[in-house]
Design goal:
The complex is a heterodimer of chains A (474) and B (199). Chain A is an alpha/beta fold. Chain A contains 16 helices and 19 strands. Helices cover 33% and strands 15% of the residues of chain B. In chain B, strands 4-3-2-1-5-6-7 form a seven-stranded mixed sheet. Classes of the chains: A alpha/beta (474), B alpha/beta (199).
Chain lengths: 474, 199
């Protein structure tokens, strides 16, 4: 038998039909749904008189539009209508909805894993590009458009062409003060925002194996920012320990049987990837983006680059436009960039470990008087756990706002919006023009960096942070 | 879906790399529950200032590009969010085809679901189209999907390639869901086999 990569194994397990020269029909094990990319899909079903084939494999929540304070009082009537539409669609088609009245409600990519819905070897889709997050469990997970949401609702399948495979091998280990977020930002800064277009990435190597489950989710989450169809990490004891006992995971002996199957998913020794790139975690410094594309990032010890230093005309023009938008001058040290806002949250960095790491930095300090800082937990469960651990008090005492769960200022569809010219240290995933509000200036960073920036009012080298607490929080 | 066979139209340029779907359709316009009516918001923050007045320097606001139906763009067009509102806005504005050196994966896929033809050409060929568009007011291209050729009135003739299945799909304006449901028996058999080997 031929040697296979994990992607090829999961793919073959789900192809139900394949004709020469046509895309495969791929079975989908889990379909996650939210309010923004689904209304037109349900409408399409109604117009065609179709049902949802597997409501039992379809789970919905409300995340993009929800206010993070006074959440039941949604001022925007169009937001309200979109949420009401999802509620009606879930009722009409028999789909489980985790709405604002449930503790499970949260960002769809935080909710799925914490409920144990996300499991190794699955195919998972959602009308959201950051579905790549779930690849951290060794699931083939990717974002789809609304037409495909309708397709999966109607057929529980997708027409898909097979992707190429890429191994991103990460050597060494992350040093204290350097995080999984820095790792993925560093990879994208080095190789670019489209180096993985057409590929499914598998992250391998010593540094990846040492990451916790939540750190792995941070890495896989931003695979889309590298252009990849999906990101994958082989399941191991870290994965199994995370999943054991979660609500939708197999229970008891069934779990042990599942683990035996999941272990078979890993890439065979000697299997060949279409492309292999390497990255060194040992020498990685904390990362901060300076531009309007996630690949426009650099080390904290570095300076805002000179557009003239880029090799091609298109890159030079893009860098010039980005610096103009960001209000930055070439040669400015990253540690001298002063910020106005801090956002800690999102499907990239809104989990309990992210909040613990940020709280440890914050404890004993006060937010810089110039800075408005807020923490938005990724889900109701994350919020509750953080409060049980006293993290909310650490943040509030320091001067942070402590909010309710949702996507919030990652994309600013709710009232959490930057004002024109405001500069934000954000733990989210995209620094596009206007992403967090028209004229808003986004710097993508880790939770630790965002927390330290809130205190100092500027970016600092988190490797040299003077903690006021010895304790590991949480 | 409207089939795409052969189309002639005015060309408009957007001369930036990595145009993301947030730029194509900003998030404040994603709250509608219809598929239509997004064209007025296309490239909103580049097209309009904070008071909603057109920004004259932006290409789509220039008189010479009014009525354009073919968009030329740079590498990695459509990156970022999976929002299908992006192709909906492009189509609703009046574009039927986009030509660029490369496209982001999800956006590329979404185009075909909406009868928009995304054409990949080399950097040099796209550069040439930018030059010709700038040099000739009212510059038009003809895109022939049957013959897989792009031509203009000034002697340009470029062949392009496209996955054959995707080409047929656009030529015929096919319904994906209908095609998959032809294999309903296989879907059911797969589900049955799955149930038998549940944990």
């Amino acid at each position: 038998m031929g040697k296979k990569t994990m992607y090829e194994k999961i793919w073959e397990n789900h192809v139900i039909h394949q004709e020469e020269g046509k895309p495969a029909i791929l079975y989908i094990d889990l379909h996650l749904v939210h309010e923004v990319t689904s209304p037109q899909a349900f409408e399409g079903l109604r117009l065609a008189g179709r049902k949802v084939r597997r409501p039992d494999l379809t789970f919905a929540t409300i995340d993009h539009n929800v206010p993070t304070k006074d959440r039941f009082n949604i001022a925007d009537p169009i937001s309200r209508q979109q949420i009401a539409t999802l509620e009606k669609n879930c009722r009409d088609f028999g789909i489980t909805l985790f709405d604002l009245n449930t503790i499970e409600q949260g960002i769809v990519h935080v909710m799925g894993p914490e409920l144990g819905l996300t499991q190794p070897g699955m195919t998972i889709v959602c009308g959201d590009s950051h579905t790549s997050t779930h690849g951290a469990f060794g699931a083939l997970a990717f974002g789809i458009g609304t037409s495909e949401v309708e397709h999966v609702l109607a057929t529980q399948c997708l027409q898909q062409a097979k992707s190429k495979t890429m191994e991103v091998r990460v050597k060494g280990s992350l040093k204290p003060g350097v995080t999984a977020k820095d790792l993925i930002l560093g990879i994208i800064a080095k190789y670019g925002t489209d180096f993985a277009t057409g590929y499914v990435i598998e992250y391998t190597g010593e540094a990846i194996r040492k990451l916790s489950m939540e750190q792995r989710m941070t890495v896989c989450n931003m695979s889309i920012e590298a252009g990849a169809r999906a990101g994958l990490i082989a399941p191991d004891e870290t994965t199994f320990n995370y999943l054991r006992g979660r609500r939708y995971a197999p229970q008891g002996e069934a779990f042990d049987r599942a683990v035996e199957e999941w272990k078979k998913l890993v890439t065979d020794e000697g299997a060949v990837y279409d492309r292999v790139v390497e990255f060194d975690a040992d020498t990685l410094a904390p990362q901060v983006t300076w531009g309007t594309s996630p690949g426009m990032g650099t080390d904290i010890t570095s300076c805002v680059p000179d557009p003239a230093s880029f090799p091609t005309e298109n890159e030079r023009k893009a860098a010039e436009k980005a610096l103009e938008y960001m209000g930055l001058k070439p040669g400015t040290p990253m540690t001298e960039i002063e910020i106005d806002r801090v956002f800690i949250g999102s499907c990239t960095n809104g989990r309990i470990e992210d909040l613990r790491a940020a709280a440890r930095v914050v404890k004993g300090y006060k937010v810089n008087p110039r800075v408005h800082a807020m923490v938005v937990p990724g889900s109701g469960r994350v919020k509750k756990q953080a409060e049980e651990e006293g993290l909310d008090k650490i943040f509030i005492e320091a001067g942070f706002e402590w909010r309710d769960a949702g996507c919030s200022m990652c994309l600013a569809m709710n009232p959490d919006v930057l004002q024109p010219g405001e500069r934000c240290a954000s733990t989210s995933n995209r620094n596009f023009e206007g992403r967090q509000g028209r004229g808003g200036r986004t710097h993508l960073v880790s939770p630790e960096m965002a927390a330290a920036a809130a205190i100092m009012g500027r970016f600092v080298d988190t490797r040299e942070w003077k903690f006021k607490t010895e304790a590991v929080i949480g | 879906m409207q089939p795409f066979t052969k189309h002639t139209g005015i060309v408009a340029p957007v001369d930036r790399v990595n145009v993301d779907t947030d730029a194509i359709i900003p998030k404040q316009f994603l709250k509608r529950i219809e598929r239509t009516g997004f064209g007025q918001f296309l490239f909103y923050e580049w097209r309009f200032d904070e008071e909603g007045n057109p920004i004259p320097d932006f290409e789509l606001n220039k008189p010479r590009y009014q009525g354009a139906s073919i968009l030329i763009a740079r590498a990695n067009f459509g990156c970022g969010s999976s929002r299908e509102h992006a192709p909906w806005a492009i189509l609703d504005y009046g574009f039927r085809a986009i030509i660029a050196p490369s496209f982001a994966d999800i956006f590329y896929n979404n185009c075909f679901k909406n009868g928009i033809l995304p054409v990949k050409l080399s950097e040099e060929e796209v550069d040439e189209l930018f030059k010709r568009t700038a040099a000739n007011e009212g510059y038009k291209l003809t895109i022939d999907l049957e013959a897989k050729r792009i031509t203009d009135d000034h002697g340009l003739d470029i062949a392009f390639d496209l996955d054959e299945h995707r080409r047929q799909y656009l030529l015929l304006g096919l319904d994906d869901i209908g095609l998959t449901l032809q294999h309903e028996d296989k879907i059911a058999a797969y589900e049955e086999a799955r149930r038998a080997r549940a944990w």
